[in-house]
Amino acid sequence: MRTINEINEKIKNGQVVVLTAEEVIELVEKKGIKKAAQEVDVVTTGTFGPMCSSGAYFNIGHSKPRIKIGGGTCTLNDVPCYTGFAAVDIYLGATAIPDDDPRNKIYPGEFKYGGAHVIQEIVAGSDVRLEAVAYGTDCYPRKKLETLINIKDLNEAVLFNIRNAYQNYNVAVNLSDKPIYTYLGMLKPNLGNANYCSAGQLSPLLKDPYYKTIGIGTKIFLGGGIGYVAWQGTQHNPSIPRKENGIPKVPGGTLAVIGDLKQMKPEWLVGTSMLGYGVTLVVGIGVPIPVLNEEVIQYAAAKDKDICAPVVDYSSNYPQIIPGSLGEVNYEQLKSGKIIIQGKEVPTGNLSSYSRARLIAEELKSWIKKGDFTLTEPVAKLPQAESGYGFKLLKERSIITKEV
Amino acid sequence: MVSRRIVLHFPHRLVNQPIIYKLVKEYDLQFNILKAFVTPQEEGLMVLELSGKKENFAKGMEYLESCGVRIQPLSQDVVRNEDKCTNCGVCVPICPTEALVVDPQTRKVLFHNKKCIACELCVKICPPRAMEVSF
Ligand code: SF4
Ligand code: SF4
Fold first, then answer.
1. Homologous superfamily (CATH) for B2-74
2. Nearest-CA residue of chain A relative to B101?
3. Which of A209, A171, A206 is nearest to A333 (CA)?
């Protein structure tokens, strides 16, 4: 029907027709698949939720005299960074917390500050305090460095998230008689609430369930700037049960994404604290879907009602890996504010901001319409549904130490 | 005569005790229950409008404290920092008074300050910590 090159021509000529995933649902309802596919060139998606496997790497520049932080230690605002690289490359993970954070010693821990908050402050242009200790070598003699750093002075500041944008997710509930504190929020006892975490009908991978257009190299909206899909995300699991419409019934595919932190904005990378669980980064991601043919738009027009998620008990089943779900609910039901589980009406809460996901889809749409954002052809496919690629549990084996 | 709005926090062990009954009977106070519920931590929470003679009121408060009830004046306020709120909605099922609700059209989370009883349940569970206690 149309190629990415043809779409990019239209973007340059200002003739491109872009709709958000919500708008395309309406159009398909009104005019049908065929007509909609003829009219629309690009569908934009968005999601804005907590994504723990996120982080950023920095090259801070060489000090005088030189220091080799690699193999030493380094903190940013007291939050430890990974230093197992060369002299002045460091990586800060979103969930890292200061050594003296009480963690869950006072239960439930508050986790007020960590890597995600530091990343948000760096993006906002604030100075952060770097402290590094090194062992010293002939070519890198310095052993201690304490300095303020600022994003504008860093050589590279790159957001590199190894697992984002989960295709669907569990709905978490608590069957026990005590409150529990999870990465899906506080769960009240005896089915007191049900928390979910997806933008549903706006969420990127739910709109391209078989990864037909989204692949390695796809250019995306990332944290308010431009990023790319770098690889499949960790735990990418295309080989899961799907509904007839192709949409995974359980958490499926994931993306690893990368982009220049210097262009990003603090509104779209938000440091957050999950009570009793830890620190995490809320990441804004938007992916454009080129309408290459009717099939693409059919998938992109899936509604909240067509997307189902499993309800999982997080007091016992999830932590103990006991298979079993308490049923399936769709996102229309979840969004209504209550669902029925085991005959009980349970209020729902979303961890992923739908109103912000909508803003991302709209923002990306305006970038494309203005000609600021062209689409890329993926350079390789993500592992596909029939590829056999999947996700395994850890097989624990005893460590046999050889007696000498 | 004095009349005040107060929040009473009953520890789990007191939830089934006839404390309010005694308060009325022995201190001659009148009350109006504005809200009452048991929190997920199984603490009893009651918002009362309490009125009576000034000296009785003070004695009544002493009595409550001696039982182990924590008293919080309702002058304390919980406000939302609009710059920090991401409108996620995870606070909505936690709020006992429906002061936090989702607007079905905009999908934004509305905060109705008037309904809020400052129970502070949302304060620590809000991921970006947008709900702030102001004194
Ligand atoms: S939990 Fe916090 S950020 Fe989320 S909607 Fe409620 S107040 Fe806003
Ligand atoms: S403090 Fe928070 S949870 Fe409590 S009533 Fe007010 S808004 Fe609701």
1. ACT domain (3.30.70.260)
2. A337
3. A171
